[in-house]
Structure formats: structure tokens, C-alpha cells
Write a structure and sequence with these properties.
The chain has about 270 residues and is of the alpha/beta class. Helices cover about 40% and strands about 15% of the residues.
Length: about 270
């Protein structure tokens, strides 16, 4: 894998990893993680595609934005990244907030997207997201937990990551935990932007390109009925369940997720 940076028009630098040649396939990570979420999937796709996994603005090794981003800002930065990479059109895939980014580009700039792969959270209705936001009131995100002298905030954050991957190995949880705790030093991440954007209206129903939705069976947002109803909301939508995986499915089950993305990207 090759690591590199591109310069955006406002001077911000976006870090990315790439491997392979041919048709471009972009992989978008979830907040507060980075491209490393896809490290186990990239080698499965790169023999067939030019795989590119950027760090979203404000995440990983990319620069911080000058202010907290709304979904439109994340979308704009990513389109500028695609322009800088010479990508007129690409296959997009994302998990959680990375899936929201992929969906935003596909909905608002359909000419830039050939196919899109999304995680099951993108099927949640605005009402479901609004209810989730209500639950978050008074309960800070893991990266927002106040630090304590005895380090108890780290134990609480560790338990939060257990919920993300209830059947994952300790190594899997630790990998995401370390990245997530390092992200505490960043001023913003994508969580709030994504949730408020999804609460506005049904974004999923606006999709017009071929869509694959994957549902990790232990994901907090997984509901079989949401997957079953997806083709009625977007005709031709395909779905797949990733077994024995939660919100960190790309780390937990890279072979299964990679195989599903590859088959869909190849038009199978």
C-alpha cells in the first residue's frame, strides 16, 4: 500500500492510502477512526480495482478543518479530493459515518458515483435518528468523556467499544479504541454532522445508482426488517448480512465484507 497526501484548494491536506490499478473504488471510514479500518479489506479488492482509502478531513492524518463541518462540508472536501486525484466517477463504499459520506455524494452528485455500498445505519428513518439523538443528550460520546485523574474515563470508553464489537477479539477492540482515544485530541469529528443530516429527511430513498447495503448482525443499528424493506425504498437495492460482526465489521470480518463488496463492484 502506498501512503500519500493531496492538497485541496483551501490548502488543507488529505491523507490517503492506495493500492491496485484500474477502476477507482473509494473506501470511507467511520468516525472517529481512519483509513486503517479498511486495512484488511484493501488487499482483497486491490487485485481488481484501484482502491483508495482517504482519511476524512479532521480524521487520521488529514488536516483539521477551520470549523466544525456539516455534512455538506464533508461532501465538498471529499469531492475536492476526488478532483485532485483525477477521479470523475468512482465506486464508493463506507461504514457508519463513512457510509453517510458515500450516500451524500451519491444523492447530491450522482454523476460522480457508479455504485455505492452502505452499512445498515443508512436505512434508519429520520424518526429513528431523532430518537437516537435524544438518547445522546446528557450522554457524551466516547471521545467527549471528561478526563479523570484516575483514568476511569478510559475504562468507560473501553466498555463503549465493547458494545461496538460484542463478539470481536480484544485485539480488534483495542485497535479501534487506540485510534478513537487519539482522536480526542482533534477538535471535531463527523458524528454530529452525520446524525443531524440523517435526521432531516429520508436520504436513502433519494438514491438512484445501484446500491448494496450490508448489515453486521451485531451492529447497534442492525434490524433484519430494515434490510428486508430496502428494495422497496430503492428498487434493485441488494442486501447482505455480515455474520459475527458489529460496528467494526471491516476489522472483524474483512474476508466476508470484502467478498460482498467485490462481487457487487464487479456487477455480479
Amino acid at each position: 500500500m502506498k501512503k500519500a497526501y493531496v492538497d485541496l484548494p483551501d490548502g488543507a491536506q488529505i491523507h490517503y492510502v492506495t493500492e491496485g490499478e484500474g477502476e477507482p473504488l473509494l473506501l470511507f471510514h467511520q468516525a472517529p477512526l481512519c483509513w486503517e479500518e479498511w486495512a484488511g479489506v484493501i488487499p482483497l479488492l486491490s487485485p481488481h480495482f484501484r482502491v483508495i482509502a482517504p482519511d476524512m478531513i479532521g480524521h487520521g492524518n488529514s488536516d483539521d478543518p477551520p470549523h466544525e463541518c456539516a455534512m455538506a462540508d464533508f461532501t465538498r472536501y471529499t469531492l475536492q479530493f476526488m478532483d485532485a486525484m483525477g477521479l470523475d466517477r468512482a465506486i464508493l463504499a463506507g461504514n457508519h459515518s463513512g457510509a453517510a459520506l458515500a450516500m451524500s455524494i451519491a444523492v447530491n452528485h450522482p454523476q460522480r458515483v457508479k455504485r455505492v455500498v452502505l452499512s445498515v445505519e443508512m436505512l434508519a428513518s429520520p424518526q429513528m435518528i431523532a430518537a437516537f439523538l435524544e438518547k445522546l443528550k446528557g450522554k457524551p460520546l466516547s471521545r467527549e468523556l471528561p478526563m479523570t485523574e484516575n483514568g476511569s474515563f478510559l475504562a468507560e470508553a473501553w466498555e463503549r467499544y465493547r458494545a461496538l464489537t460484542p463478539t470481536g477479539s480484544l485485539a480488534t477492540r483495542f485497535r479501534a479504541f487506540v485510534i478513537g482515544q487519539a482522536a480526542r485530541q482533534r477538535p471535531y469529528d463527523a458524528h454530529h454532522a452525520v446524525l443531524h443530516w440523517m435526521a432531516e429527511e429520508d436520504q436513502f430513498a433519494k438514491l438512484r445508482c445501484p446500491v448494496l447495503v450490508f448489515g453486521a448482525e451485531n451492529d447497534l443499528f442492525f434490524k433484519q426488517e430494515l434490510l428486508d424493506a430496502a428494495p422497496s425504498r430503492v428498487p434493485g437495492c441488494r442486501t447482505v448480512v455480515i455474520r459475527d460482526a458489529g460496528a467494526l465489521s471491516a476489522i472483524e470480518q474483512p474476508q466476508a465484507l470484502g467478498a460482498a463488496i467485490l462481487a457487487f463492484a464487479q456487477g455480479a
